Amino acid sequence: MSAYCVGKYLWPELVGKDGKYAVATIDRENPSVKAMIVLEGSVVTQDFRCDRFSSSWFYVLYVFLGKRSSWAELFGKQGQVAKVTIKKENPYLDAIIVEEGFVVPLDYHEDRVWIWVNKRGIVIQVPLTG
Fold it and tell me: What is the pTM of this model?
């Protein structure tokens, strides 16, 4: 299961600890992981991925690989260049090129990046996760 995991990816010792303490511990022990508190009762997927972990309210969290969520420097670049740049930085992100005017789902996914391009393939919006 941990074949693609980089560094520590599980913190069983944090179960039952204060969420803020858990986030600080994870940030210190693996800076490539972004930890986030998830309220008890929130809907989270149950499939295993080393880039996320969930538990209850203010007790350990939800985790995503990579702290970066936007790429302003890619605005005006070729869409394919933007996609390769994002995937090289974080291969766990799903970087998707979308031509302006196309309809995309409105749901939010932390591991997805929409790369909006014009008809010439030039990035016309800052790529963001979601």
Answer: 0.52
Cα 2 to chain centroid, rounded = 17
DSSP state of 60: S
Nearest to 34 by CA among 79, 67, 59: 67
Instruction: Determine the pLDDT at residue 4.
Output: 55
How far, CA to CA in Å, does 110 sit from each of 103, 115, 120, 128? 19, 14, 27, 9
Model pLDDT, residue 85: 95
Whole-number Å distance between alpha carbons of 80 and 5: 26
**What does the block give as tokens for 96?**
């998707």
Neighbours of 49 (CB within 10 A): 16
Q: What is the pLDDT of residues 51-106, one digit of tens each?
A: 554 433 333 344 443 457 788 899 999 999 999 999 888 777 889 999 999 998 88
Q: How far apart are CA 57 and CA 26, in angstroms?
A: 17
